[in-house]
Amino acid sequence: MNRNEKTVDVLQELNQFVNDRIEGYKHAAKVTKDPAHQSYYKDLINQSTKFSSEINSTISSFGGDPETSTTAKGKIFRGWMDVKSSITGSDEEAVIKSNLRGEEWAQKAYNDALDHRGELPQNVVQMVEKQKQASLATCERLRQMEKSAD
């Protein structure tokens, strides 16, 4: 596998998690009853959509096909959240906790991509690191929201 193929491979996998993030926040925005939270989740959908576009345009620049699907694990997780929210009536804390779990998965996906740092072009590493930092900030904000939801 050459460097371009490796870059495409790493970014396609990462983008499945970013697409999961979009779907997860769409779900959260739909089920939350808190207008401030809904607004924040919509901001995160927009942020994630930008991240996905950035990744896909980078994939294309390396000769790969854009990644539009989500992970199998993400689909299962959202299905479970649908069932759970219908049972618990989507309490705010449960929504926040599931978002936090999803964001922690995103962190793992960014770290997995950065494990290939040596094989990736510097501009790709910088893009991934920038997105990882934004995800980390989201984790912090969600933890604050969780504390105030108690």
Topology:
Layout: H1 3-31, H2 35-61, H3 72-88, H4 92-114, H5 122-149
Helix pairs in contact: 1-2, 1-3, 1-4, 2-5, 3-4, 4-5
Rounded to the nearest angstrom, the distance between the terminal CA atoms is 49 Å
Query: If you consult CATH, what is the topology?
Result: Ferritin
Task: State the shape.
Answer: elongated
User: Which architecture does the CATH hierarchy give at level 2?
Assistant: Up-down Bundle
Please write the string of helix (H) and strand (E) elements: HHHHH
- Beta content comes to under 5%
What's the average pLDDT? Answer: 89
Largest sheet: none
Which value, in Å, is the CA radius of gyration?
16 Å
What is the CATH domain class? Mainly Alpha
Question: What is the percent of helical residues?
Answer: over 70%
What structural class results from the helix and strand content?
mainly alpha
**Low-confidence runs (pLDDT<50, min 5 residues)?**
none
Organism: Pontibacter locisalis
Domain DUF2383: 7-115
Protein name: PA2169 family four-helix-bundle protein
InterPro entries: CHP02284 (IPR011971), DUF2383 (IPR019052), Ferritin-like (IPR012347), Ferritin-like_SF (IPR009078), UCP029477 (IPR016920)
